[in-house]
């Protein structure tokens, strides 16, 4: 994306910003700019202005995915998700989102915060509780990864980016592409095989398993070829080739049953219900008390 396009994007926000009090630029990307400002009703909020794809501009965001995320967030009232206050689709190819501002750091930038096994387990426990909010709605996140987990000062996570979340009760809007919608470094095998019939709530469990072991490895991906060989991380995920040797350490061995079940290659081998995951996590936590 050229600087000229980025500058054009910022200029395209001027008429919108005139309606808000002293917005502060906090993020600028190719097709979206985010500002922070004090809303008289909602407090500190994030104002997102972006472009969506149109016949004249194929470079924007898929409006269907934006609308899907908004629809899910509007049905949620949980500390684990940002509150959505406003969404407008403008006829000129722009959209506006006003949502709760989360003062936080992406997990991808603060994995070393969770140095102790108990800290990693408590984070995963909170993520399970948070994901259970959408699982009860029969929704699968499908893109859980460190970049999509914001860590607040309290170390509680906020789960973001439901753009490719899938309602198991609705018809898919996903195009049939090899690999399907996912972040391939954190995808479950069924996602990489694009086996839609096997994608369900247990798919998010696999993503959690990767994150759990990555935390224990101080940020190194458990399927990284530098640890286990292979051609690539997705190749190793498909072949179930991950770094189990870390659990040879006595201090970490109690977590192996939890991690190995989350990372089971077949969905039916993972946990059937969220309370089963929480029970297993609590059993592990008892070891570290």
Molecular structure report:
Strand 4 (84-89) and strand 5 form a beta hairpin. This protein has 2 domains: 3-100, Phosphorylase Kinase, domain 1 (2-Layer Sandwich); 104-287, Transferase(Phosphotransferase) domain 1 (Transferase(Phosphotransferase), domain 1, Orthogonal Bundle), CATH 1.10.510. It is globular and about 60 Å long. 33% of the residues lie in helices and 17% in strands. A 5-stranded antiparallel β-sheet has the order 1-2-3-5-4. It has a 3-stranded antiparallel β-sheet with strand order 6-8-9. A two-stranded antiparallel ribbon has the order 7-10. By secondary structure, it is α+β, with helices and mostly antiparallel strands. The N and C termini lie far apart (50 Å). It holds the Pfam family Pkinase. Residues 20-285 form the Protein kinase domain. One of its GO terms (molecular function) is protein serine/threonine kinase activity. Keywords: ATP-binding, Kinase, Nucleotide-binding, Transferase.
């Amino acid at each position: 994306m050229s600087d000229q396009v980025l500058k054009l994007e910022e200029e395209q926000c001027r008429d919108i910003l005139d309606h808000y009090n002293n917005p502060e630029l906090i993020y600028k990307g190719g097709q979206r700019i985010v500002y922070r400002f004090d809303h008289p009703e909602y407090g500190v909020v994030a104002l997102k202005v972006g472009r969506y794809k149109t016949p004249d501009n194929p470079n924007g965001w898929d409006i269907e995915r934006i609308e899907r995320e908004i629809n899910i967030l509007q049905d949620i009232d949980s500390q684990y998700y940002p509150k959505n206050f406003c969404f407008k689709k403008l006829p000129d190819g722009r959209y506006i989102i006003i949502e709760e501002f989360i003062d936080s750091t992406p997990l991808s930038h603060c994995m070393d915060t969770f140095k102790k096994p108990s800290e990693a387990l408590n984070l995963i426990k909170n993520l399970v509780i948070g994901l259970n909010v959408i699982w009860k709605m029969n929704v699968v996140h499908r893109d859980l990864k460190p970049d999509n987990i914001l860590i607040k000062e309290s170390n509680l996570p906020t789960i973001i980016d439901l753009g490719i979340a899938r309602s198991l009760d609705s018809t898919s809007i996903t195009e049939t592409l090899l690999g399907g919608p996912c972040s391939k470094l954190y995808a479950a095998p069924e996602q990489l095989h694009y086996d839609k019939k096997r994608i369900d709530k247990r798919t998010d469990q696999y993503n959690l398993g990767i994150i759990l072991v990555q935390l224990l490895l101080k940020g190194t991906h458990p399927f990284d070829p530098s640890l286990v060989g292979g051609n690539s991380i997705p190749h190793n995920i498909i072949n179930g080739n991950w770094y189990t040797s870390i659990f040879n350490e006595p201090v970490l061995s109690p977590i192996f049953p939890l991690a190995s079940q989350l990372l089971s290659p077949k969905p039916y081998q993972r946990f059937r219900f969220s309370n089963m995951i929480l029970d297993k996590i609590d059993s592990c936590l008892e070891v570290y008390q």
